[in-house]
Amino acid sequence: MDWHALALACRRANASYVETGVASKAAFGALGDAWIGQYADRSHQATLSVDPLGQTWLSISGTRASQLQVGDILRDVDLSPVAVNDGHVTAGASQGMDRVFDWARSTAPAGTVFQIVGHSLGAVSATLAPGYLPASQIGTITSLAAPKFIAADFFASHAEVFKRLIALVSGSDGWSSWPWFDPRWQYRAPVPTVWLKDDRGTFAVLSDGNQWKGGWAFEDHDIGSYQKRLDVIAAASDIKPAA
């Protein structure tokens, strides 16, 4: 597990929340990325950047509640099932995602392979990539704090792509546990999932995301909490035993 790479991916997800183009460019530049552009509408926001290794990143923001983006919140609560490329997802999660991925493909050079990351609703958006991009253009997908908006059939239909999915949950994250009681939406990505247990760097790697029981600690959902916990683990990974 490359903890430094995961911590940096989390920083990109965090930077994707920055609203104005000038500030967004500065935020990604501080991470060492070359900023390509930003997509934003009433219920979506995403940024394209290129890292120092030449990899293209599509970073998708989650719910912009603090920025009073009501459209994002409406997407979170629209739980009607819709079909997307051999699977089912919530209508809110899928709404408008064709525009986001079309923008990414039309903005980047033809055939670009995208490394995709997102937090919260953005994590679900990132995970929906096989619904809108050919598998050959999907690199890694990093999912931080995804709610349960994707059905088992979508994961099964795109199992080969999801071998490249890195899923993370934190503590007893209450919003990542949403929808709490709707029997239609009680499934998580069936892939190895990193469970960031606390601020001390305690973690576990679950063999299947459905082993995580969720909970009611809504403060665990904050991307700053995910960042702090990943940074602690990344720092500890540098410690070598004495000779």
Quick structural gist:
The protein is an alpha/beta fold and 243 residues long.
Report on the structure:
This protein is α/β, with parallel strands linked by helices and 243 residues long. The chain has a single domain (3-237), classed as Alpha/Beta hydrolase fold, catalytic domain (Rossmann fold, 3-Layer(aba) Sandwich), CATH 3.40.50.1820. Helices cover 30% and strands 22% of the residues. It has eight helices and ten strands.
Descriptive keywords:
Rossmann fold; 243 residues; 8 helices; alpha/beta
Strand order of the largest sheet: 1-2-3-6-7-8-9-10
Total strands: the figure is: 10
CATH topology: Rossmann fold
Task: Provide the helix percentage.
Answer: 25-40%
Q: How is the topology of this model organized?
A:
Elements (H helix, E strand, L loop, with lengths): L2 H13 L5 H10 L3 E8 L2 E7 L5 E5 L9 H8 L3 E3 L4 E3 H4 L2 H11 L6 E6 L1 H7 L10 E7 L7 H6 L7 E6 L22 E4 L6 E4 L16 H15 L6
Parallel strand pairs: 3-6, 6-7, 7-8, 8-9
Antiparallel strand pairs: 1-2, 2-3, 4-5, 9-10
